[in-house]
């Protein structure tokens, strides 16, 4: 039994040929996230939470709003992630004394202690993702990925 139409071309391979860049971006994102998920699971983290922790390791005690803005995430996504991180004992959230509307996020000692382990995960991700690529290919990939990101960033060249 096969889902191939006459001629042997599958609908998916046909779509890949019509939209090669989008399928390449999708494929890289999907496989990278799957590997990240597997590696982070050992640390008790979900993919994306380590990005929030990376921001806090750079500048602890920032507002929930600042985290969302820096990461390009909406309020509800940040709030959900921070709830999970707080439940895991990795961060605390408290109202600012200066402005009670602002929620400040701080690392706990347990959250700080994960920094080197997350760095190891990211080093492994980087190594596996670029295995077999030359330095030139790596630089070219980063430049191309950043150009694609800029082109599809919300509001980039789209009238609305």
From TrEMBL:
<keyword id="KW-0238">DNA-binding</keyword>
<dbReference type="InterPro" id="IPR000835">
    <property type="entry name" value="HTH_MarR-typ"/>
</dbReference>
<protein>
    <submittedName>
        <fullName>MarR family transcriptional regulator</fullName>
    </submittedName>
</protein>
<dbReference type="InterPro" id="IPR036390">
    <property type="entry name" value="WH_DNA-bd_sf"/>
</dbReference>
<dbReference type="InterPro" id="IPR039422">
    <property type="entry name" value="MarR/SlyA-like"/>
</dbReference>
<dbReference type="Pfam" id="PF01047">
    <property type="entry name" value="MarR"/>
</dbReference>
<feature type="domain" description="HTH marR-type">
    <location>
        <begin position="18"/>
        <end position="150"/>
    </location>
</feature>
<keyword id="KW-0804">Transcription</keyword>
<dbReference type="InterPro" id="IPR036388">
    <property type="entry name" value="WH-like_DNA-bd_sf"/>
</dbReference>
<keyword id="KW-0805">Transcription regulation</keyword>
<dbReference type="InterPro" id="IPR023187">
    <property type="entry name" value="Tscrpt_reg_MarR-type_CS"/>
</dbReference>
């Amino acid at each position: 039994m096969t889902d191939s139409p006459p001629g042997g071309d599958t609908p998916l391979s046909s779509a890949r040929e019509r939209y090669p860049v989008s399928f390449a971006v999708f494929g890289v994102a999907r496989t990278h996230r799957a590997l990240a998920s597997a590696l982070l699971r050992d640390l008790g983290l979900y993919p994306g939470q380590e990005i929030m922790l990376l921001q806090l390791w750079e500048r602890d005690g920032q507002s929930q709003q600042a985290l969302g803005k820096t990461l390009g995430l909406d309020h509800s996504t940040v709030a959900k992630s921070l709830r999970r991180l707080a439940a895991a004992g990795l961060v605390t959230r408290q109202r600012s004394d200066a402005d009670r509307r602002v929620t400040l996020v701080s690392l706990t000692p347990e959250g700080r202690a994960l920094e080197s382990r997350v760095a190891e995960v990211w080093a492994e991700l980087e190594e596996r993702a670029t295995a077999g690529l030359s330095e030139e290919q790596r630089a070219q990939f980063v430049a191309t990925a950043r150009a694609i990101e800029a082109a599809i960033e919300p509001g980039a060249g789209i009238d609305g």
